[in-house]
Amino acid sequence: MASSLISRQFALSLQKNLHLSAPGCRYVSKAAPKTQLEFDYDGPSMKTSVPGPRSEELRKQLGHIQNVGAINFFCNYEESRGNYLVDVDGNRMLDIYTQISSIPIGYNHPDLLKLLSDPSNLSTLVNRPALGILPPENFPEKLTESLVSVAPSGMTRVQTMACGSCSNENAYKAMFIWYRNKERGHNTPSEEDLSSCIINQSPGCPELSILSFMGGFHGRTMGCLATTHSKAIHKLDVPSFDWPIAPFPSLQYPLEEFTRENAQEEARCLEEVEDLIVKWRQKGKPVAGVVIEPIQAEGGDNHASSDFFRGLRDIARKHGCAFHVDEVQTGGGTTGKMWAHEHWGMEDPADIVSFSKKLLTGGFYHKDEFQADEPYRIFNTWMGDPSKNLVLSEVLNVIRRENLLEEVNRSGKALMTGLVELQAQYPGMLSRARGVGTFCAIDICDDGTRNRILITARDKGILLGGCGDRSIRFRPALVFKEYHVHLFLNIFNDVLAQLK
Amino acid sequence: MASSLISRQFALSLQKNLHLSAPGCRYVSKAAPKTQLEFDYDGPSMKTSVPGPRSEELRKQLGHIQNVGAINFFCNYEESRGNYLVDVDGNRMLDIYTQISSIPIGYNHPDLLKLLSDPSNLSTLVNRPALGILPPENFPEKLTESLVSVAPSGMTRVQTMACGSCSNENAYKAMFIWYRNKERGHNTPSEEDLSSCIINQSPGCPELSILSFMGGFHGRTMGCLATTHSKAIHKLDVPSFDWPIAPFPSLQYPLEEFTRENAQEEARCLEEVEDLIVKWRQKGKPVAGVVIEPIQAEGGDNHASSDFFRGLRDIARKHGCAFHVDEVQTGGGTTGKMWAHEHWGMEDPADIVSFSKKLLTGGFYHKDEFQADEPYRIFNTWMGDPSKNLVLSEVLNVIRRENLLEEVNRSGKALMTGLVELQAQYPGMLSRARGVGTFCAIDICDDGTRNRILITARDKGILLGGCGDRSIRFRPALVFKEYHVHLFLNIFNDVLAQLK
């Protein structure tokens, strides 16, 4: 009773705030374009609690083959549409987590169904080439249409890879190779280089390092893992490298109210970065590259200012270290620009930019000088998958055709406004609403409450994910419109009221 | 003139040897089944030298985006069929390298075209899930039909991954986790474990190691790379771990003529393995696992006996190390059994078996005790790709339906007989013909001649690959029949005669 009253009050306040006129608790925003409705449902629809009985049955089956501890539920992808994920028990949820932020334009987008039904694309699906030695005829064209068409400023070169971890591993290798080539004055490697590397010894396998940040996440293979510092469960029991780890700025929100304090905090972190670079050089393990996410995602959606990133790049340059921006989670349009680092407004922002997830293929862009001097240095059997480039090419067409980056900015504003409102309404429960585009997050008072919110929201048809110690991260697809924002806010308000 | 004479003599000797009656240089073996011809060409057809002008043009285009130094030529996958790869200049080559050994049943197999044209599979191609949290309904069924149906002896559990390197990286992590859990007596990790691992320090990130072999290849990400010791170009300039590296037996061929010498050599290597395990334990970097290929592939197709592998497994067991068999290149049927290690005839051959390439998806099988105790320890966003499991499932159906393992054994025998014959005919040029099934290799007198053979063969319509310092490796698809063997041998003989 109390909760439904609050919900109605909240809906009214939202309408006032957003200047929307439709009355009632669940309304269709006037801004919602028709094109969306063609392949989207009109709201969540729940038949069982989640996971339902069919999910439980399948979980038992799969449990004979794999660890199923992380499985939320089993999905009916055939019936899923747009922003809605349907499970095997017939529950339909508004998906604001999108497979750990990896679905760019929703489920079963009609243009993708059409593309993959086209018989002329069949060969790309059936014959996976070893791209590094025998690429298909249309490979340069598809690369140009897809990844090259959205290349970050200053970069014309891109190497595809199979996943995010492989992308970062190979980006690190490219930085090590670049660094050692500089050290050798671009001369041929010595006999000692060649013979020592075979047995893992220096100088062939040099004592170089990558500087990373506390709270960062860059993947789970062993090179990446040495730069990942978000959760113990990722790293426990795996041998690592003695590489420098700098503090990431711990900012106070709302950012505009704490400019001075935040600037001080960022200056402190930059100073520490420079100290570490000097210290590790003295240790005989020079920093070949600095890696950072534009927004620390897995680590709790931690932001820093453009000034911080500019300062960081300058420090990297000053000390001859490469600057690698990891856009695996932030890239692909969800911040309202194709790359989150474009918000920095820098002309020459980075040396290397890695990606995966919403780009459907892994890989990394790099400046010319980071191309390995010889073939077979950055190499593996598949080097990506042309069938993913094919789909990405069409995804980018859809983003342009449907002006999805504009939509993201519009939805993002509505989402942030709503989160700030809710935060004012539940001050003991919510804090630190933050975000760029729809790449938003909010903190919950404690981990237990966070998890109760996630489960209750799911049972009401809203799929969300956590990050950091006690944050909820919002990672909708690019087709998440204002209409969906309001739908979400209404239900989220119900959840908060219920758990208050 | 001389070369064509030799060629004819050789063809005659082959016919005598193989008891085949069709006369002339290029004949159809009576053993060639009709089913093959439905989607195969009847021989190579060359229009230009390779790479041709269209390939050169595309290479220039792609050169603006990537390092193209390793590219052989560009392919027309639409026109490729069965054992024949067609390039963009209309050249059709008999493919005995199959995209670095990763095409299981040839190009455009009709059953795969049918499968991927089926509208009911469209959703699997369009919606890539985060398999570890939100698998599709048919995931347990497809896993059971595909990977579980060919699980190595003693293993019921399998984890999919995106590529070979990720498979081995995660297999290593599984071994480290298993080893540390044993050390902790399966108690909860300590506070110190949890806090130290975040900053790459022990005890949370322990000083454990993986023992590998000289000449081995296990991938190119940093964990894998620390166990790869085949070529300097793979490893140069990349930091590594101080892990033990044992000698791989250097056997004399033909194996049956050197049993005593080879047994001694294998005993020497096993002794060294045991010494290294003891030494690294004393160093404070205990060996958590031993990794080995059943046949060292990239390193030069180096074989060892079943006794060696049995001895190695016993040593690993004795010292509490896991035993990981890397079947990324050897797995999938090309040795005449699904897994090369099945040739050892052991009941309990391994703790972990990793795969990729011809299995179309990466991953690893493991014994129950190697399943991580908690979720999210062996984890990433995609954890493989169900569209690859779908295709693999049909590939395995084709293998069973068309008895392809039997075919491989038949073709393999013909190939080995032919190679041994050629070796007798060109003793100054060829040596050490060796192989299991069609997984064969032969040594060439020197690297330069090897490369001339590869290029000349390509211009005559035979696509081959090198391995090691001066070997040629044969890696045909499973649909490579006796007919193709004879076709290859005839042309190969021409090449050798020409370069003699």
UniProtKB/TrEMBL annotation, chains A, B:
* InterPro entries cross-referenced by the UniProt entry: 4NH2But_aminotransferase_euk, Aminotrans_3, PyrdxlP-dep_Trfase, PyrdxlP-dep_Trfase_major, PyrdxlP-dep_Trfase_small
Q: What are the BP-aspect GO terms?
A: gamma-aminobutyric acid catabolic process
EC number(s) per entry? 2.6.1.19, 2.6.1.22
GO terms for cellular component: mitochondrion
One Pfam family matching this protein: Aminotran_3
Q: Which Gene3D superfamilies match?
A: Aspartate Aminotransferase, domain 1, Type I PLP-dependent aspartate aminotransferase-like (Major domain)
Which reaction is catalysed here?
(S)-3-amino-2-methylpropanoate + 2-oxoglutarate = 2-methyl-3-oxopropanoate + L-glutamate; 4-aminobutanoate + 2-oxoglutarate = succinate semialdehyde + L-glutamate
- Please give the function described in this protein's UniProt entry: Catalyzes the conversion of gamma-aminobutyrate and L-beta-aminoisobutyrate to succinate semialdehyde and methylmalonate semialdehyde, respectively. Can also convert delta-aminovalerate and beta-alanine.
What name does this protein carry?
A: 4-aminobutyrate aminotransferase, mitochondrial
Source organism per UniProt: Champsocephalus esox
